[in-house]
Write a structure and sequence with these properties.
The structure is a single chain. The chain has about 450 residues and is α+β, with helices and mostly antiparallel strands. About 55% of the residues lie in helices and about 15% in strands. The chain contains 10 helices and 12 strands. It has a 5-stranded antiparallel beta sheet with strand order 2-3-1-5-4. Strands 7-9-10-12-11 form a 5-stranded mixed beta sheet. Strands 6-8 form a two-stranded antiparallel ribbon. Mean pLDDT is about 75; it is low at about 1-5, about 85-140 and about 315-320.
């Protein structure tokens, strides 16, 4: 409904402006031809001027008759002379008795008419009898001027000189009316063309690839509605492209982090297999323990590779996660992970002080996420911690959270050639996904990692 109204606005506007232009044109024509023109041509202010022009015309005709020594009959029948040229009226008269009739050779005559108490035989030069009005309809409404001919007096009526300019006044009225119509329509058309040009330039910017450029067209008609539609389309396309870029970026980050996480369990699996292959265990119990750890790391590698494969086929950042969050025994899980990682660090020659988690509590998380976080943290100890200093791990059991604080002395010049810079950001994302946090800082050679788990409360 809004589109229909917007469409009708421009059409109604053009029709209204056209009607306004026509009204103005008619008004101008009427004003010029019926008001201003008659006032200029027939007002008393100019009557003296037109009278002098008429008198000059009578004098000129008198000079013409005298110069050619025309008789009354010759003047009446002179259709090629002044009377036929339009300078003077084609109606002439000669005073004679009422019963007298002029011959009508080449003319049409009315038998008799009176003007100022004098009877006239009226002749219209160049007309036939059928074109002449009845005698009773002949009235003298113009002044008669005597012309002295060679054998008598001829009376002629000279039209006002102003009549000859009435046609020019009408032409001027038509021209001014046309100018008035154009004065109304042309600005409207120019503004419309300008708005179309602006819209064309705005869309040209979008076509050049700048989707950040907003479209705004003034007005409340279909052109502005078209601009709004293009603006909505621009925002939609920009939002879709931004979403696609974010999805690709999230895919890239997760795939990179998973690829990075593959290295830690793979290294451990290789170490456990070396122990078993070269029989570095002391008894059957150690053999079984290393075999079990190798199996766990192989399962972890399978889980990570499955996620990596799934993530390569989906767009959503959260898609492809094999296991949903679950409620776990936090004390048992964290205690087991700390014991396992501490044992590995001791085997590498590090001194580790592990905390004891005595109270039982629940966590709501993905177990594989926590395993990945611990693998990354303790793998960094092996790479960057100074074995000459102990690794301190403290646990704080609060009412709503469990906080682990890991502190180590960093090597003076650690080898970071195999670092990709994705470990800590990945761990932060994994902890945030489970409702926890991870913060890391390095100050005066001491590296501190703080891991906070939020406890799960039964509803």
């Amino acid at each position: 409904m809004e589109n229909k109204r917007a469409f009708s606005r421009l059409g109604s506007k053009l029709i209204g402006i056209s009607l306004l232009g026509l009204v103005l044109a008619f008004a101008v024509f009427y004003l010029v031809s019926s008001v201003v023109g008659p006032w200029l041509l027939y007002s008393e202010r100019f009557s003296g001027f037109w009278k002098s022009r008429n008198e000059a015309a009578v004098e000129a005709y008198q000079a013409y008759v005298t110069e050619n020594r025309l008789s009354v009959r010759q003047a009446v029948d002179d259709t090629d002379g002044k009377l036929a040229s339009g300078i003077y009226t084609i109606m002439v008269g000669t005073p004679m008795p009422a019963e007298a009739v002029l011959p009508t050779g080449g003319t049409a005559a009315v038998e008799y008419a009176e003007y100022g108490g004098v009877g006239y035989s009226i002749t219209w030069a160049g007309l036939t009898e059928t074109d002449v009005p009845h005698t009773a309809s002949v009235e003298f409404v113009m002044e008669m001027h005597p012309i002295q001919c060679a054998d008598g007096v001829l009376y002629i009526s000279v039209p006002s000189a102003a009549d000859r300019y009435a046609g020019l006044v009408r032409i001027a009225g038509l021209l001014l009316a046309l100018l008035g119509f154009c004065a109304v329509m042309i600005p409207c058309i120019v503004r419309l063309v300008r708005r179309i040009g602006v819209l064309s330039r705005e869309t040209g910017v979008l076509m050049a690839g700048n989707l950040e450029h907003s479209i705004h067209i003034e007005g409340r008609d279909e052109l502005s509605a078209l601009g709004e539609d293009i603006e909505r389309l621009r925002r939609s396309v920009a939002a879709r492209l931004a979403g696609e870029r974010e999805a690709v970026s999230a895919n890239s980050r997760l795939i990179t982090s998973l690829s990075h996480d593959l290295r830690t369990p793979l290294t451990k699996l290789t170490g456990y297999l070396d122990i078993l292959i070269y029989q570095k265990y002391r008894n059957q119990e150690e053999h079984d323990a290393f075999l079990r750890l190798a199996s766990e790391k192989a399962a972890q590698l399978k889980n990570l590779t499955d996620q990596l494969f799934d993530r390569a086929q989906v767009d959503a950042p959260e898609a492809g996660l094999e296991h949903p969050p679950e409620i776990v025994d936090g004390a048992a899980l964290l205690g087991q992970l700390l014991a396992e990682q501490g044992h590995d660090l001791r085997r590498e020659g590090f001194e580790v002080r592990l905390p004891a988690l005595e109270r039982s509590f629940s966590l709501y998380l993905r177990t594989e996420d926590v395993v990945r976080v611990f693998d990354n943290l303790f793998s960094n100890f092996k790479k960057y911690a100074d074995p000459a200093f102990p690794i301190r791990i403290q646990a704080k059991d609060g009412p709503d959270t469990v906080t682990l604080r890991l502190e180590n002395r960093a090597k003076a010049a650690p080898d970071r050639s195999d670092s990709r810079g994705v470990g800590v950001p990945t761990m932060k994302e994994l902890m945030a996904r489970s409702g926890g946090t991870l913060e890391a800082s390095l100050s005066e050679g001491v590296y501190v990692s703080t891991v906070v788990f939020r406890k799960h409360r039964e509803s």
